[in-house]
Amino acid sequence: MRNKLCIGIVGFGNMGSAIGEALFSEGTYEISIYDIQKKKLKGIDAVNIAKNLEELIDTSKVILLAIKPQDIEDFIKKSHHYLSKKKPLIISIAAGISTSYFEKKIRGIRVVRVMPNLAAKVRNSVSFLCRGKNARKEDLSIAMKIFSYVGKTFAVKENFLDKATSISGSGPGYIYYFMEAIMKAALRLGFSRQIAKEMTEETFMGAVKLAILSGKDFSQLIKDVSSRGGTTERAIGIFNKRKMDSIIYEAISSAYRRAKELAKD
User: Fold this and answer.
1) Of 47, 93, 222, 226, which has the fewest beta carbons less than 10 angstroms from its beta carbon?
2) What is the pLDDT tens value at each position of the chain, 265 positions in all?
């Protein structure tokens, strides 16, 4: 076990548990976890559960911060001494918290910032990563390897992280919004709730699978499913009339602005 890289996970909510379970199943790392809410750790016996932050930091070469942005400051206050002493690699998934924030708080700290999304729970996330000024190339490689277990990874400059937040980070929420709207339409047309839900899920799943396997542009796929004077063309016409693409861009731009506001806060 001691030859394995030890990763300490702070926060075992949706993202922390998804990443932790993926890493444990691979058997490549030694995993330790800590969460201030002990109830989240009940029934977990396959990994080491740290008694406190000091123990976690003392035994980990990499610290994965899977806590909310508003909890980061408190984490640093409680663990500043241990982090300054041990200097582990910090991997943070807290939206809006820049690498420079950590670097100002903890001198010489190495930080990699990541923006994954909720699909990490089914190992189909899209994760964007950037490294701080103190982090080395191998630090970024370690982080990319870790997040490759829950989906695709892309290394970008930090100014793209908030942009990624507004698209892939929040993206599942947008997709679920459209799915709910389509399901509601099916209900209004008389389908049962079960059929409406399954119809919507399978339609989205099939469309995404076809898009990936075909390699075609989305615009070409729209043409493929449409026929002149047909039903799809009629529906797309309504979307275009209402300027749906502009509405979507406006919504994503608003999400991007909010991401930048959170960074300033």
Assistant:
1) 222
2) 456 899 999 998 889 999 998 998 888 899 999 988 877 777 676 578 889 999 999 999 999 999 998 899 999 999 999 999 999 999 999 988 999 999 999 999 999 999 999 999 999 999 999 999 999 999 999 999 999 999 999 999 999 999 999 999 999 999 999 999 999 999 999 999 999 999 999 999 999 999 999 999 999 999 999 999 999 999 999 999 999 999 999 999 999 999 888 777 6
Identity of the residue numbered 201? E
Which residue, chain included where needed, has tokens 């610290």? Answer: 63
Q: Measuring CA to CA, how many Å separate 24 from each of 5, 14, 125, 143, 242? A: 12, 16, 17, 15, 48
